[in-house]
Write a structure and sequence with these properties.
This protein is α/β, with parallel strands linked by helices and 365 residues long. Helix content is 39%, strand content 7%. The protein folds into three domains: 53 residues, no CATH class; 50 residues; 212 residues, Nucleotidyltransferase, domain 5 (2-Layer Sandwich), CATH 3.30.420.10. Strands 3-2-1-4-5 form a five-stranded mixed beta sheet, with helices on both faces. β2 and β3 form a beta hairpin. It comes from Gordonibacter pamelaeae. GO terms for molecular function: nucleic acid binding; transposase activity.
Length: 365
């Protein structure tokens, strides 16, 4: 109910024949002995604290509803957000990359998208619609490595050594493809290296590591990939060949393996494959047999130019250049990686197809 006159004020609104309690403070029937029984007055007024609090809360909520911005500025911001989401960028990256144009928290962008502003919906966010039921567990397969290369042995290493380790895995295309992609993920800088393998075998992996070692030199290879954590795939079974240097057969790295069906132990690599799949998505009929080195250079340039919230808004290439300029220059020159400015970032297959079109090649999808 509306507030009555204060103590000492005149009623004004109460009719002359109203109860005397309504013509003086506190202007309500609260406290009257006839409140519930025996009251024959036509006009009654009761105060409810719970009802008054509900009305007050509704008033405050209504005052804060909507967006605190001018209509034109908000429409322009939403157009920018929609354009960036279409390029595969996450709300966190948009909030960081567009901070000079509008200051907004990533959760606010998520809320705007969920509310349907600018015709958007959660279906445009890959992570919200990309989940699927897990497969039923199968019997564990025996591993080819001994306890000296187990995850337990890796966990026993000093924390500094584990923090600078690289994570290695492979990504496949269609089931009929011969070629696949070998990925090397640097934990400290989040740099993702992608190497094309002619086949998914241990000898092909060893040859790819040999090529990379010759391109950047053994000292830099050991600084970046001197400690590697991988899974129990057949392509990593010959650990001695993977560890053997291309120069005089000496050791270049130390390989450790995760436990069986425990890919979360190299979660950084697995999470970065989500970004890789934005550029080479599943279910689009993309054959990895059509890929070449230039395609992977485009993929790595886009992936490693993403601003990462975990790196305080820096990209992996910028982080590597700040930490080790010599290694960054050698790695980027050897693999054709370029720093892509935010305005040209495109985390979709369109980035690869445009480059292929310039080279006179058909699109992948």
């Amino acid at each position: 109910m509306a507030r009555g006159p204060g103590k000492g004020e005149r009623a004004g609104d109460a009719p002359e024949d109203a109860c005397a309690r309504l013509q003086a403070w506190p202007w309500t029937c609260n406290g009257c002995q006839h409140r519930r029984y025996g009251c024959g007055k036509a006009l009654r007024c009761e105060y409810s604290a719970a009802r008054a609090q509900t009305l007050a809360d509704g008033l405050l909520s209504g005052a804060r509803r909507g967006v605190n911005a001018k209509e034109y500025d908000f429409e322009r911001a939403m157009a920018t957000i929609r354009s960036d989401v279409a390029r595969g960028l996450s709300p966190a990256q948009i909030a960081c990359g567009r901070a000079d144009r509008f200051k907004v928290h990533p959760t606010t962008i998520y809320r705007w998208i969920a509310a349907g502003y600018a015709g958007m919906s959660d279906a445009e966010l890959r992570r919200k619609v990309g989940y699927k039921p897990r497969r039923e567990p199968s019997a564990a397969k025996p591993t080819s490595h001994g306890p000296e290369r187990s995850y337990k042995a890796f966990s026993a290493l000093p924390e500094e050594g584990r923090a600078r380790a690289a994570e290695m895995d492979t990504v496949i295309g269609l089931s009929k493809d011969s070629q696949c992609i070998l990925t090397l993920y640097s934990r400290p800088c989040k740099v993702q290296v992608c190497l094309l393998l002619p086949e998914k075998t241990s000898s092909a992996v060893a040859a790819a590591l040999d090529m990379l070692e010759r391109a950047i030199g053994k000292p830099l290879f050991q600084r970046l990939f001197g400690l590697v954590l991988t899974d129990n795939g057949c392509e990593f079974s010959d650990t001695e060949a993977l560890e053997r240097s291309a120069f005089h057969g000496t050791a270049r790295t130390k390989v450790y393996c995760c436990d069986v069906r425990a890919s979360q132990q190299k979660g950084g690599c697995e999470r970065n494959h989500v970004e890789l799949r934005k550029l080479l998505p599943k279910g689009r009929g993309i054959s990895f047999d059509d890929l070449d080195g230039r395609d992977l250079a485009v993929v790595m340039s886009q992936l490693n130019s993403e601003p990462r919230p975990s790196l305080m808004g820096l990209s992996p290439t910028a982080m590597l250049e700040a930490a080790d300029p010599e290694a960054a220059a050698a790695l980027m020159d050897a693999l054709g990686i370029e720093e892509v400015p935010y305005g040209r970032l495109d985390l979709t297959i369109g980035a690869v197809d445009r480059d292929r079109e310039e080279r006179g090649l058909p699109p992948l999808a």
